[in-house]
């Protein structure tokens, strides 16, 4: 896999890259001893087990087992291929990498994505121009002024305007010689019987930017009451709704400082918050929150505050997202705005301070669901029955049994109904999801543990290889994966390239082996020479015991089949073995 971009280029990019910097762009890392720790973006967790080692330029998650170097991180996080990951790092550090040497498929996909980014960027320029200059943009400027969007915000979010008409953008791209087929792939124009027409017409344009600051798609809002009010780009090779949050790139710094993020539904809600000095906000793009969204968000903030337009929509969304947040182990609260207010209209009337005051009172999702049910059904006898019917599902799906008990107790007080009776209803619908076993905690056989330690040792301290018969030791390993890694280290070592783990993980395309290497690279141990040789001797003893055991079995078989000659040979061999082992142990 490494051969597709010139090896020396990869070396150059890798040695320039700092894994802590690159990973930090995507999640918060805190220094812990010789490592950095953060919440893993690849599995749900509350306590950080995602480990980055600066010295070895490697990451490993002790929760889900994912691991690798700076390139594998980007490949996993952005779901991209190796050459693209190399280029992403190269760009960050100002290194030029050509596409020479890539497979035709990789080259084509990469060029296609680059092409789409370029078209989107050009479109941003075009739309911006139309908004800021000329008479066609006048209604849009007027509209934004009425909605009190400041000039600073217009610029920060690169807002634009798609003028009325069916072929404005088509004429623009034609005039600069860009193929309309490519513009169609970017989702900006739509084919018709003959030719194309503009997707966005007479709309304010919101460029959607990903965390790499690339324009991946667009949203458009019409200026009057025509429908649909909002229009978004379709999914393209660079735009995936379920993984994209509007405004994240601009918000991520503040999200980290505040350790919280507001999630709103619309573009104008987000802009209004920004206009009122609240910058830790993202917007979902007309889709429900996905677990991918939540995983991305948890890289930037410990607490998510959902802001919904109305109570009714809020309750639905809250029930939907409750299990998602629980699965991802992310703390989420729901903020209730007064009836008939959306964040935008609330802010215009009451201002940012009041908004933040309301946010302070935001309820945890379950609390919000309970309050809403009480408000909705009232506390009459029938009301109480309906409330419990409405809540048994959400309460039953709570995986945290302590949390559930607290809510049931609270509900019992509010409804003046016996706790046991509520519990009975909840149990009825509970999914029994409590049993969670961590797949990373598995009993490890003793000799396997030793093999692991040995490979960790040669990975972290390859010089030790010359001090024992490494080839034989590695060859006799039982774990095929560890054996393979051992051989890779040995090859590198004998080729006179002192092995570095970050280097080695690129030699394999097998994610299992790559993850194993990264976990062994960050394994703690004292790798001074004495200790290393002790480990080797321990393993050799272990090998001999294994060999003796095998001999004993063969001896038993020989006895049973009365094979005197074989028996004699085996017994002599066993004697030699035991003597040798004792001698070894006495050293
Ligand atoms: Zn993980």
Q: How many extended strands?
A: 16
Structural class: alpha+beta
Largest sheet: 5 strands, antiparallel
Spatial ordering of strands, largest sheet? 1-2-3-4-5
CATH domain fold name of the largest domain: DNAb Helicase, Chain A
What ligands are attached or bound here? Answer: zinc ion
* Rounded average pLDDT: 86
SSE blueprint and pairings:
Layout: H1 7-16, H2 19-24, E1 30-32, E2 35-38, E3 50-53, E4 58-61, E5 67-68, H3 70-78, H4 82-92, H5 104-132, H6 138-146, H7 151-156, E6 160-162, H8 168-175, H9 180-185, E7 189-191, E8 196-198, E9 203-209, E10 215-222, E11 230-232, H10 248-258, E12 260-264, H11 267-275, E13 281-283, H12 291-298, E14 303-307, H13 311-328, E15 331-335, H14 343-360, E16 363-364, H15 365-377, H16 381-396, H17 401-415, H18 419-429, H19 446-460, H20 470-475, H21 480-494, H22 501-504, H23 511-521, H24 529-560, H25 564-586
Helix pairs in contact: 1-4, 3-4, 11-14, 13-15, 15-16, 16-18, 19-21, 19-24, 21-23, 24-25
């Amino acid at each position: 896999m490494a051969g597709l971009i010139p090896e020396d280029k990869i070396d150059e990019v890798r040695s320039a890259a700092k894994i802590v910097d690159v990973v930090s762009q995507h999640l918060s890392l805190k220094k812990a001893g010789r490592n950095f720790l953060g919440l893993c973006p690849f599995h749900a967790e509350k306590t950080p087990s995602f480990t980055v080692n600066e010295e070895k330029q490697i990451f490993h998650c002790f929760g889900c087992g994912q691991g690798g170097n700076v390139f594998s991180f980007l490949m996993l996080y952005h779901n991209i291929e190796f050459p693209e990951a190399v280029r992403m790092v190269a760009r960050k550090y100002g290194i030029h990498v050509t596409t020479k040497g890539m497979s035709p498929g990789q080259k084509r996909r990469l060029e296609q994505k680059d092409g789409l980014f370029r078209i989107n960027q050009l479109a941003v320029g075009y739309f911006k121009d139309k908004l800021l200059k000329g008479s066609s943009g006048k209604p849009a400027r007027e509209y934004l002024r009425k909605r009190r969007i400041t000039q600073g915000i217009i610029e920060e979010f690169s807002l634009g305007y798609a003028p009325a008409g069916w072929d404005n953008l088509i004429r623009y791209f034609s005039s600069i010689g860009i193929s309309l087929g490519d513009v169609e792939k970017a989702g900006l124009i739509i084919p018709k019987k003959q030719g194309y027409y503009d997707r966005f017409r007479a709309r304010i344009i919101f460029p959607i930017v990903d965390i790499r600051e690339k324009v991946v798609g667009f949203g458009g809002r019409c200026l009057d009451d025509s429908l649909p009010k909002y229009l978004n780009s379709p999914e393209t090779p660079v735009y995936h709704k379920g993984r994209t949050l509007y405004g994240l790139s601009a918000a991520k710094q503040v999200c980290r400082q505040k350790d919280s993020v507001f999630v709103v539904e619309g573009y104008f809600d987000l802009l209004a918050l920004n206009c009122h000095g609240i910058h830790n906000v993202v917007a979902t793009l007309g889709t429900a929150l996905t677990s991918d969204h939540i995983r991305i968000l948890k890289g930037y903030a410990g607490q998510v505050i959902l802001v919904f337009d109305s109570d009714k929509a809020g309750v639905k969304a809250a029930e939907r997202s409750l299990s998602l947040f629980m699965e991802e182990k992310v703390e989420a609260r729901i903020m209730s705005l007064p009836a008939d207010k959306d964040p935008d209209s609330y802010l215009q009337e009451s201002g940012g301070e009041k908004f933040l005051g309301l946010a302070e009172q935001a309820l945890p999702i379950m609390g919000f669901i309970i309050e809403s049910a009480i408000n909705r059904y009232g506390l009459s006898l029938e009301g109480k029955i309906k409330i419990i019917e409405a809540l048994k599902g959400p309460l039953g799906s709570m995986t945290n049994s302590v949390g559930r008990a607290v809510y049931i107790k609270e509900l019992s007080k509010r409804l003046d109904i016996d706790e046991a009776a509520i519990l009975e209803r909840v149990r009825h619908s509970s999914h029994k999801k409590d049993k969670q076993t961590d797949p990373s905690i598995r009993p490890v056989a003793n000799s396997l543990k030793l093999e692991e330690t040995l490979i960790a040792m040669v990975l972290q301290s390859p010089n030790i290889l010359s001090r024992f018969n490494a080839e034989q030791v590695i060859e006799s390993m039982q774990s095929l994966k560890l054996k393979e890694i051992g051989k890779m280290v040995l090859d590198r070592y004998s080729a006179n390239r002192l092995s570095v783990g970050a280097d080695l993980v690129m030699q394999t395309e097998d994610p299992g082996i790559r993850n194993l290497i990264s976990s062994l690279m960050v394994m703690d141990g004292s790798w001074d020479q004495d200790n290393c040789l002790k480990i080797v001797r321990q393993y050799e003893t272990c090998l001999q015991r294994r060999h003796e055991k095998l001999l004993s079995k063969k001896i038993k078989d020989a006895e049973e089949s009365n094979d005197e000659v074989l028996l004699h040979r085996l017994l002599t061999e066993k004697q030699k073995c035991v003597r040798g082992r004792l001698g070894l142990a006495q050293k």
